[in-house]
Design goal:
The chain has about 375 residues and is an alpha/beta fold. It is about 30% helix and about 20% strand. It has one domain: TIM Barrel (Alpha-Beta Barrel), CATH 3.20.20.70. α8 (about 155-165) runs parallel beside α10 and α12 (about 245-260) packs across α13 (about 285-295). The structure holds pyridoxal-5'-phosphate and iron/sulfur cluster (SF4).
Length: about 375
C-alpha cells in the first residue's frame, strides 16, 4: 500500500492539474494559487464528486479569494498575542503552540491563510525551543494546544520529541492536538504514530470535519485507532457557505461523527479572514442550525456555536433565545418553541442554615 508520504507527494498544487478530469479553465485560478498555496492530496481529491461540491469548495482555489475587501489578514490578532514566534497566549491557563507550517490540504477558508504553507510562517527547531522555553517559564499554563499548520504532518520522531518535552513540564496537565489529518489524510494515522501518541496521556485530539462526505471508511479507521489508544476525540466545524450551511447537512454530520466516536466540540462562525469572505454566512443562520440540533438530536452531537471575537477577544458562545427572561421567575422556551416557567431562588434572601460537615460528608440540616 502507498505510504502517506508518497500520497502527499502526489498532491495537486496547480489548478491546471484539474483541467483534464474536470474541464475547468485554470487560467483565472493560477493567480489565486500563487497568492495562497494549493495542495489537494489524492485521498482528499478522491472525495470530490463534482465541480463546486462541498469538498471542491474547501480545497480548490476560487477567484472570490481575490475580490474580498472587508476582512483583515489576522482578525484574531494572533500576532499581537504572541509573546514568542508561533505561540499564542490569549487565555489565562492555556496556550496555542504552532509547530508545523504545512498542511496535508490547504483549506481555502483557513483562519491562518495569511501564513500557512507560505514563506511567512517559519517553524524550525529554534522557534519550537523558544516556545518550549516560554511554556516552561509560565507555570499558569496547564493546557497546551499543539497546532499549526498541521502538527501530524511532522515525522513520528519530531512529534515524539515535542510531546516528550511538553510532558516533562510539570505544570502542563493536559496536551491537546489540533489536526485535520484524520479528515484530509487519514492514512497518516499509522500504528507507529499511535505508539508515539499513547505515551503522552492525558492527550486530547480535536479534528476538523466540515461535511458528512468527509466521513469515509478511511477516516473512520483513523478515528478508531486514535480512540482505541484512549485519546478522546473532539471536532471543530467551521460554518461555511456552500459547504455546510444547512441544518440537515449539519445534523447528519454531527450524528455521523458520533458513530465514529468523535464528539462535536465547537461550531465556529467563519472568521473575518482576508480571502475568505465568500464563505461567510449570517450569524442568524448559525443560530438556526443550533436550534435545529438542540433537542432534536443527541445532546452529545450539539457543539457550542462560537464567534472567535475579532481583535483577539477569544471564543464567545452564541445561543438561540431559550432564556426568555430572568427574575423571580425564569421564563424558558424549549426546543419545540413551548414556554415553561421555573421558580427562581432569590439571591437576596436572608442567610439559610449553613452546610454542616459530618465525617467529611457534606450534609444540609440534620440529614
Ligand atoms: C481556541 C483557542 C484556545 C482554546 O480554547 P478552548 O475554549 O479552551 O478550547 C486557546 N488559545 C487560543 C489562542 C485559541 O484560539
Ligand atoms: S488544516 Fe487547518 S491550518 Fe491547515 S489549511 Fe486547513 S484550516 Fe488551515
Amino acid at each position: 500500500m502507498e505510504t502517506w508520504q508518497k500520497m502527499l507527494q502526489r498532491s495537486i498544487t496547480k489548478p491546471a492539474d484539474l483541467t483534464r478530469k474536470y474541464g475547468i479553465d485554470p487560467q483565472p485560478l493560477e493567480k489565486v494559487a500563487e497568492l495562497y498555496p494549493m495542495r489537494v492530496n489524492p485521498y482528499y481529491l478522491s472525495l470530490i464528486r463534482s465541480v463546486d461540491d462541498p469538498i471542491w469548495r474547501q480545497a480548490v482555489p476560487s477567484v472570490n479569494e481575490l475580490t474580498d475587501s472587508v476582512c483583515p489578514a489576522d482578525p484574531l490578532d494572533e500576532e499581537n498575542q504572541s509573546p514568542v514566534t508561533n505561540l499564542v497566549h490569549r487565555y489565562p491557563d492555556r496556550a496555542l503552540f504552532l509547530v508545523c507550517a504545512q498542511c496535508a490540504m490547504y483549506c481555502r477558508f483557513c483562519t491562518r491563510k495569511r501564513k500557512v504553507g507560505g514563506e511567512q510562517m517559519q517553524v524550525n527547531r529554534e522557534t519550537i525551543e523558544q516556545g518550549l522555553d516560554y511554556l516552561r517559564g509560565h507555570s499558569e499554563i496547564r493546557d497546551v494546544i499543539v497546532s499549526g499548520g498541521d502538527p501530524l504532518l511532522l515525522t513520528d520522531e519530531k512529534i515524539d520529541w515535542i510531546l516528550g518535552e511538553l510532558r516533562s513540564i510539570r505544570h502542563i496537565e493536559i496536551i491537546r492536538i489540533g489536526s485535520r489529518i484524520p479528515v484530509v489524510l487519514p492514512q497518516r494515522i499509522t500504528p507507529g504514530l499511535i505508539r508515539v501518541l499513547r505515551k503522552y496521556q492525558p492527550l486530547y485530539l480535536n479534528t476538523h470535519f466540515n461535511h458528512p462526505d468527509e466521513i469515509t471508511t478511511s477516516s473512520a479507521k483513523a478515528c478508531t485507532r486514535l480512540a482505541d489508544a484512549g485519546i478522546p476525540l473532539g471536532n471543530q466545524t467551521v460554518l461555511l457557505r456552500g459547504v455546510n450551511d444547512d441544518p440537515e447537512v449539519m445534523k447528519r454530520l454531527m450524528q455521523r461523527l458520533l458513530t465514529i466516536r468523535v464528539r462535536p466540540y465547537y461550531l465556529y462562525q467563519a472568521d473575518m479572514v482576508q480571502g475568505t469572505d465568500h464563505f461567510r454566512t449570517s450569524v442568524e443562520e448559525g443560530i438556526e442550525i443550533i436550534r435545529a440540533l438542540r433537542g432534536h438530536t443527541s445532546g452529545l452531537g450539539v457543539p457550542a456555536y462560537v464567534i472567535d471575537a475579532p481583535g483577539g477577544g477569544g471564543k464567545i458562545p452564541v445561543l438561540p433565545d431559550y432564556l426568555q427572561s430572568l427574575g423571580d421567575e425564569v421564563v424558558l422556551k424549549n426546543y419545540r418553541g413551548d414556554t415553561y416557567r421555573y421558580v427562581n431562588v432569590n439571591q437576596q434572601q436572608p442567610e439559610q442554615e449553613p452546610l454542616r460537615v459530618v465525617n467529611c460528608k457534606v450534609s444540609s440540616g440534620g440529614a
